[in-house]
Amino acid sequence: MENLAQAAERTESGESTAFDDVRDLAFDVFARSCPSRGTLEHVTGRWGALTLGALHDGSFRFNELRRRVDGVSEKMLSQTLHALERDGLVHREAQPTNPPRVDYRLTPLGEEIAERLLGLIRFVEGRMDDVLAARESYDEARGAR
């Protein structure tokens, strides 16, 4: 796999590269093969959204984050953090201490996404009376049949 410098050299010589192909594509989350779909899943899934929201408050160690995101299992939090780190949204910093210390924090891109998510979270929380009334109305209508 070539790196960006090699791709730049090939591009300067007029050759097309895989990086050119990706750069020329418009990302479309509705397209099955679009890589943005996976990232959207990581960000909007239950544990991804809650983890990003929690990390917006600052840096956390794993168990602190697990307590903050109430209900997440150790396995799910670990998988979520790996996915978010791979997508460039979370930074994992392991410090060579005894015992080892690992801190997680948002990257600048993660901060930007978390702020948008928190806007949605606050909106949903603020409209829960309406949601609960709609649920009750729906359940009554379904039960009346």
UniProtKB/TrEMBL annotation:
<feature type="domain" description="HTH hxlR-type">
    <location>
        <begin position="34"/>
        <end position="132"/>
    </location>
</feature>
<keyword id="KW-0238">DNA-binding</keyword>
<dbReference type="InterPro" id="IPR036390">
    <property type="entry name" value="WH_DNA-bd_sf"/>
</dbReference>
<dbReference type="GO" id="GO:0003677">
    <property type="term" value="F:DNA binding"/>
</dbReference>
<dbReference type="InterPro" id="IPR002577">
    <property type="entry name" value="HTH_HxlR"/>
</dbReference>
<dbReference type="InterPro" id="IPR036388">
    <property type="entry name" value="WH-like_DNA-bd_sf"/>
</dbReference>
<keyword id="KW-0805">Transcription regulation</keyword>
<keyword id="KW-0804">Transcription</keyword>
<dbReference type="Pfam" id="PF01638">
    <property type="entry name" value="HxlR"/>
</dbReference>
<protein>
    <submittedName>
        <fullName>Winged helix-turn-helix transcriptional regulator</fullName>
    </submittedName>
</protein>
